[in-house]
Design a protein that fits this description.
Elements: H1 2-24, H2 27-33, H3 38-59, H4 68-96, H5 99-106, H6 109-121, H7 127-144, H8 150-175, H9 181-198, H10 209-234, H11 239-246, H12 248-261, H13 267-297
Helix pairs in contact: 1-10, 1-12, 2-10, 2-12, 3-4, 3-9, 3-10, 4-8, 4-9, 5-8, 5-12, 5-13, 6-8, 7-13, 11-13
């Protein structure tokens, strides 16, 4: 019976993490589908994501005992600010350049997190990790070589900032586990929305019913639901295994915009993406099997 329960939890975790990767991968699709400028799109997406997370906190009973000092505090505020910058840069990058290009840069997030972990927490970096990071960097360079204009260059730069920011938030959540992550994420959405609203001198345009429905779906799919599914599912999986499955969005993201919008990336982007994807998944797969074999021996 314990074995069956363990297997069922593991299977549930796999399903949740797979669903989160599929939802995350839809970001490019929504950015192409919604005809709004970046500031307005991010503002409304952040607002709906904030509301959905607040409803979640209320439903779970967290708001009754919520304390900003204990659940968020200065550490949570710093983390939320970093996350807010990443949220904006993600959508802005997708507006400026190809989804495949953004996903190629985003694929390097495990190595960004590793480097920041070494810098902040003095975590050891293995030789195999350094080699994999170098290979993934080659892929990013090959992809960047396909930039055909200022939009591609700016998009790639924003994707780099976004990836570094998300990696930093991962490291911070590990360093400060006492933070209430749903509350911190909700605060990040609020900060991002307020910033975007403030940057629009003529006020925030009110979208029509059609766009509002798409914006709600955008917020739920790529912020609220995907985050919750990944956090809940990863509890039943090895971290390397969860990270490996989450890499599926790197392949699925460009696929959605190719299927629905005929957005075919340049050959260099495809080649660079393939190099980076192989380097990252190879490293994560190696980590997973090493830990699995070690657990069996013990």
């Amino acid at each position: 019976m314990p074995l069956i329960k363990t297997l069922s939890r593991h299977t549930l975790g796999l399903i949740m993490v797979c669903l989160s990767a599929i939802l995350w991968s839809s970001a490019g699709f929504f950015v192409r589908m919604i005809d709004m400028n970046t500031w307005a799109m991010v503002a409304w997406r952040s607002l709906f994501a904030f509301l959905s997370l607040i409803l979640l906190l209320a439903w779970g009973g967290y708001l009754r005992r919520f304390s900003f000092r204990n659940d968020v505090g200065l550490k949570g505020l710093i983390t939320a600010a970093v996350m807010a910058i990443s949220m904006f840069c993600y959508v802005a990058a997708l507006k400026l350049t190809s989804v495949a290009g953004v996903m190629t840069v985003y694929a390097t997030i495990p190595f960004f997190a590793m480097g920041l972990g070494w810098l902040i927490q003095s975590k050891k970096i293995t030789k195999r990790a350094l080699i994999s990071a170098a290979v993934s960097l080659v892929g990013v360079v090959v992809m960047a070589a396909s930039a055909s204009g200022s939009g591609d260059t700016a998009g790639n730069a924003l994707a780099l900032i976004m990836t570094a920011g998300f990696a930093a938030s991962i490291v911070m959540s590990g360093k400060w586990p006492e933070m209430n992550l749903p509350a911190v994420t909700a605060l990040a959405c609020a900060l991002c929305g307020v910033f975007c609203f403030a940057m629009m001198p003529q006020g925030l345009p009110v979208p029509g019913t059609h766009d509002i429905l798409w914006l709600i779906a955008f917020a739920l799919s790529t912020q609220s639901m995907s985050y919750l599914l990944f956090m809940a599912g990863s509890r039943h999986l090895d971290p390397a295994e969860a990270s490996l499955i989450a890499q599926a969005d790197i392949v699925l993201g460009p696929m959605w915009v190719w299927v629905f919008f005929s957005e075919l990336p340049a050959n260099n982007t495809l080649l660079g993406g393939a190099i980076t994807f192989v380097a990252v998944t190879g490293y994560l797969a190696g980590e997973y099997y090493l830990k699995r074999n070690s657990a069996r021996k013990n």
